[in-house]
Amino acid sequence: MLRTTRRTLVALASAVGIAAAWAGATPAQAAGVPTPDHVIVVVLENHGYDQIIGSPDAPYINSLVAGGANLTNMHAETHPSQPNYYALFSGDTQGITDDSCVTPGFSAAHNLGSELIAAGRSWGSYNESLPAQGSTTCKSGSYAQKHNPWFGFSNVPASTADTFAQFPSDFTKLPQVSFVIPNLQNDMHDGTVKQGDTWLRNNLGAYATWAKTHNSVLAITTDEDEGTTSNNIPTVLYGQPVTAGSSSSARYSHYDLLHSVEDMYGLPHAGKSASASDISGVWTS
Question: In the predicted model, what is the mean pLDDT of the chain?
Answer without folding.
Answer: 92
